[in-house]
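dumping this here before i forget
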Amino acid sequence: MMNESNNASCVPQEAPAILSVTEENAKIIVDTFRSLGLKVYGGKNAPYIWVHFPGLSSWDVFNEILEKTDIVTIPGKGFGPGGEEYIRVGAFAHREYI
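structure:
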């Protein structure tokens, strides 16, 4: 039977530092896209950020970002029709890649 003390031993000691970096990365990503005038969702208490590109195909945005920056995002269309015009960005990368 698992108890709280057993669960705590499963969490790496580095977890708080990793979470802190991920939260800071998310804030940088959110602030950057907002500074470009885009609507941004998420990134608070979550490592994923959704960015809205009105009138654009999520696959076209994905391709343009990849070609120009070598940064991989996720086209929102892959999450269903409601994801079109959005990309999803993760905040897991090392800081120098954010």
